[in-house]
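User: Teach me something about this protein's shape.
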Amino acid sequence: MKLRNILLLLATVFIIQACQNESGQALVIFHAGSLSYPLKKLTEDYQQSHPEQQFQLEPAGSLNTIRKVTDLNRQADMIASADYKLISEMLIPKHTAYNIAFAANSIVLAYTDQSAYANEISSENWIEILQKDEIKIGASDPNADPCGYRTRLTLQLAGKLKEIPNLTNLILEEGRYYERPKETDLIALLETQTIDYFFIYESIAKQHHFKTVVFSDSINLSQPLLNDWYKQASIKVRGSSPADSLLIRGEAIVYGITVLDESLSNQAAWDFVAYLLDPAQGTKIIEAAGQRALVPAFINTTHMLPEKIKPLVTIKENL
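Assistant: First, the predicted structure itself:
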């Protein structure tokens, strides 16, 4: 074979391999622990029509998820947060221009048949039962996970309604409750009866078939129309660095997703977002996983937004 033909052959092989490497780039999604189940289902379904697309899913509490980018300079294509506001406060404008609010949830108290007082607890007496000395409670870390600070906000609101100003400290008394970095870390503790109850998102309780105490809308952070009431509760958490802090005010639970500017697979990432937001595709899976999909989703800006996303979102001020 002539040298010219050999060089052409090698060049062709190199080009093919390069294209394969590019098309085979896995989408890296850093995401909230409470999105583990729906994202697994979403990515599996997406691969039915896009078998070439691989995914790397990495769960953590949403604050820690975002800090992987802001503090640790980790590479990712997308961030999916259990609190959409964290995207605006910690990622815009340095790491992305977009914040898409796409799903809602609520806080419940989860337990099993083996939990102490399982046959007695209700939406009327849960405060009294959780204060009993023998009861073991779980809650996630408010400095790492939105479910952690939302648990405290829920307790603050319940305390206001019941006129028990120190309710949070009574329920989550130092040294008598179990704290973990993210809400899903507490599942095994409940299943092994290490704890009797823990505060969790309604969707996760449904996914694991836990029994629940369902709180009233006044405290479960489920209703945007009650945001003026919810914001009476507040908590300070660590921000994007140990020296920073964020003041979190009560607000209805809304999840956010964004594609990062530094994404190595920008087009593929937006293709997946379009699928996720499509009422005929991704939002059905989100609903089946126990969350309420926002249709259309809300977005902070459509400036230079990919055209495929625009029909699936509507602009909302102050997102």
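Now, about its shape. Residues 3-23 form the longest helix (21 residues). Residues 102 and 294 are 5 Å apart (CA to CA). If you'd like, I can walk through any region in more detail.
User: That's plenty for now, thanks!
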